[in-house]
Amino acid sequence: MFTYNFSVRDLEYFLLILTRISCFVYTAPFFSTANVPKRVKIGFSFFVAMVLYRFVIPHSTLNYTTVMGYAALVISEAACGLAIGFVAEICISVLSLAGSRIDMDIGLSMVNMFDPVSRQQIGFTGTLYQYAILLLLIGTNMHHWLLRAFVDAFSLIPIGHVNVRMENMVSVIVGFMTDAFIIAFRIYLPIFAVMMLLNSILGILAKVAPQLNMFAVGVQLKMLVGFGALILTVGLLPQMSDFIFSQMKNMVRSVVEVMH
Fold first, then answer.
1. Is 252 exposed, middle or buried (0-12, 13-18, 19+ CB in 10 A)?
2. Residues 6-38: tens digit of each pLDDT
3. Contacts of 28 (CB under 8 A, 6+ apart)
4. Where are the alpha helices (DSSP H) in the chain?
């Protein structure tokens, strides 16, 4: 008969680990996909928490005396897991921003699709880029790196010792928003250049041959040239994924440094 004895302190310590890992799974890319059953997410969080509690994380004494003190520890651990997973998700969500700008330029801004992963209405190009980057994330085992980075964060941010410096956190968040727009614009830049060149040509033709209906001709030309540019830039997806994943690593590292 298998028996396992543990004290209330051990249970409290395990629950803090479970809180951090479950909040990370709730927000991190690949782990937080909406089409994964909630029971699978709960079971995965519980299994990882058991492994970390039993074999990885050294046990230490928690500094609290009242129920409110323990509640504060739970909130801090939840904030830590949410922050690490959320900054990684930011890098994937910028693809929706870049895709919306591309759809607006090539004339597909009215085409919205229901994404079963995010359960939101998203544009055609944004959906294409998100699934492509998600496949590259799985193919390059980037989700393994993300999980290892989260586990390594326990050595820098021990359980019950989350210290969020608000001034540094605000500066990091502002930097994240700037980086997100930079990433989105770099993805959008090839299509932007092609569409600007096409608009310049159409503007010249409108002056040279005013009898032509440039509005009717321009819509078909924009879609044709836009789809051609998308096909030609498919080869840039590996470089795009490398850039996004490197930014993801920098963001996760910055958040961990702020909170330890």
1. buried
2. 677 778 888 889 999 999 998 888 888 777 788
3. 84, 85, 88, 89, 146, 150
4. 8-27, 38-51, 67-106, 124-139, 142-156, 166-208, 214-232, 237-259
Nearest C-alpha neighbor of 251 from the set 137, 130, 90, 97: 90
Place of tokens 């090839």: 190
38 three-class SS: helix
Q: Nearest 5°: CA angle at 89, between 88 and 91?
A: 75
* Nearest by Cα to 188 from 242, 138, 226, 142: 226
Question: What CA–CA distances, in Å, run from 131 to 3, 36, 125, 229?
Answer: 46, 15, 10, 19
Closest-CA residue to 189 (of 239, 142, 139): 239
